[in-house]
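Model: Ready when you are.
Researcher: Fold this.
Model:
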Amino acid sequence: MKKDNIIGIYLAAGSSSRMGKNKLALPLKGKPLGSLALTTAVRSKLDHTLVVVRQAEEPPAWIKTEFSGNSRNNWSFVSCPNAGQGMSSSLKCGVKAALGMEAAALLIMLADQPFIQAGMVNHLIAEFQKRSASRDQIEFVASSFKGEILPPILFAKSIFPLLLKLEGDQGARKLVREGSRRGVFRAYDDWRLFYDIDTKEDYEKARGCTNG
């Protein structure tokens, strides 16, 4: 793998407690919900995507259904048995797996954001690479909607140690919201790009979006 990789961390180890069933296996747009953003990731300019699940030895049904014939040249599983301890645990599993991949940056994505687009991911990557080429040492490139910071968010290598210090349900956005770090924000005006599905009501609204 080349140096200065941009690695995606695809967080897919949640318990779906608010849904009451595995939300990533629910059908949406004719495919398992969890496969939609992963398809976006593997089609983007990310060099590799790490799919964080609880047990990589037993791939979840939504992976088997959509990616059974995929060569997996640009994605792989990361096991995170302690994912139940909070989002930070899943994130740290991904960061630790990426440390040996000579990553220049990590881009964090959520498996329950089915409407993320490859162009959006590529914009964040291009912004980071442009700044890096000009020796403008930014620490993050973050997406936002109406002033709110939302995933996906790209973090430079200098932030990796701080990601590993997050605890409980602390997400990576905490590091951006602190306001003490140098970064770039890309604003988007389509709420659907950031829509995440946690409840049955969220899921029904997402189904309505695909039918409209």
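Researcher: Now this one.
Model:
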Amino acid sequence: MTHPSEKICLYSGPLSMFGAKVEIGALEKGLDFELVMVPFEMQRLYQPKHPEVLRINPKQQVPVLVHGALELFDSTQIFEYLEELQPEPTLWPAGAAAKARARLLEHQSDEVYFPPIVRLMSLQDQWQDPAAVAAREASALYYLKMEGLLADRDYLAGAYSYADIAFYMAQLFGERMGAAMDEHTPRLLAWRERISRRPAVRKVAGAMAAYLQSQGRPLPAFLAALLPSP
């Protein structure tokens, strides 16, 4: 049985988009948790994998969250647990329909927007490859869809929510892989600036920026602006 006072442990990685989502959510909730960054190298990636990640997650991936006797994996499932564990501040909107729409946006960030970005990761030196062109086109269409959502609101689902956290982290990788936002989506660019100013986001994305910088990797301007002060 898990007691609320038991320490939460979150296993993540320095370049884990999904782990960063959960870390931001936990920070926004004001939860006390231990962050365990599993071993990672640019050449070997996550090999050898952390034994607790291997034991808990059949997919052998971070994030993994342990809270007493409870062991969870998958960032969306962890979001749901955090919301039940610490209801305030709420990160899902009130009402069944509004909550369903926000959950769908969070899901689409991972399962609709992000797969083309994953394809771009292996095509960085093949900019005109048809698969790379198609991936950037898919990203541009998705940005226009999000631009439309922001016509009458500051955040994707109305109030700031997990939907914003998920898409912020996904688009961070999109921008790094060459699927950049541009002048066609001014509201979306303003949205990203608003999200970037949140302390939880600055802490997590800033740490990721610092890691990338330490590896000599280029940073998009918005991400470079989040680097921790020396």
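Researcher: Key takeaway?
Model: Residues 148 and 187 are 9 Å apart (CA to CA).
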